[in-house]
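FW: tagging you since you asked about this chain on Friday. Here's the raw sequence from the shared folder, copied in full. Didn't touch anything.
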Amino acid sequence: MFVSRFAPSPTGLLHLGHAYSALLSYEMAVKRKGLFKLRIENIDFTRCKKVYEDRIYEDLYWLGISWEEDVIKQSDRIQVYENYLKFLNDKGFIYGCRCSRSDIKNALSALSLPENSLNTFIYPGTCKEKKLSIWRNNVRIDIDKIKNYFGNIVLSFKETGFGPNGETGLQSFDLNWLQKKFGDFVIARKDIRTSYHLAVTVDDAQQKVTHVSRGNDLFYATPIHVILQYLLNFKTPVYIHHPLIKDKNGNKLAKSKGAESILSMRNSGTNIKEIRSILGL
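HL: got it, structure written out here
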């Protein structure tokens, strides 16, 4: 069965970009007589607010969107994510890391790596052999250990939308590429015991999501999710990355930059038909 989802973070009011993503996912499910699920991604405990969560439900209802009753909140699932960390730790695929971003930048500078590496903060492996606890530190994936265990496997995902540079169709990559692109990336932070990457991978699997529709700014994070799906024995969903809704200056709409909210548009008299027209739906 076709299952799509919308997974907003309650760090502010929904704007047109959220409306586009939610409507697109919802209408794909309706068209295919499938299920549409809602998830509240609220692991950022300092920025996520209950008042914004309540407004998400109200705005989606006003947009004509309904969802399955099994809404999950990531803040209720920390133990679930920790269980998967334990699984990966037992396999030897992760390690504890106490490095800060400035520590990493300084280490990369000492190694005289080119500026583009500094900008992307590819981790130089400072803590890899220190055998630090994963329960009192940040947690990183150990790609070398994964390669030793599986070999240089080739993984892939099906893209039926488009990446930022028009990428579509079957997208394949191997572990050497992943290591060069991302290094030993963080899958759990010391303070919240998970990360966006781990939480979204586990949640999509447990909500049985078959098709992930999201903005194409997340396209290049997909290989990280695919390797986690492989390691955790999850199925890889189909991905539909869509263009971002932008402001009049061509910038991505963002809560932090004061994008006009759905609530504000509603209060000013904008109706659903006008919003759909603005979004090209």
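FW: Strands lie at 3-6, 35-40, 72-73, 94-97, 138-141, 154-159, 169-174, 186-188, 211-215, 238-242.
HL: agreed, and Confidence is low (pLDDT under 50) at residues 114-119.
FW: great, closing this out.
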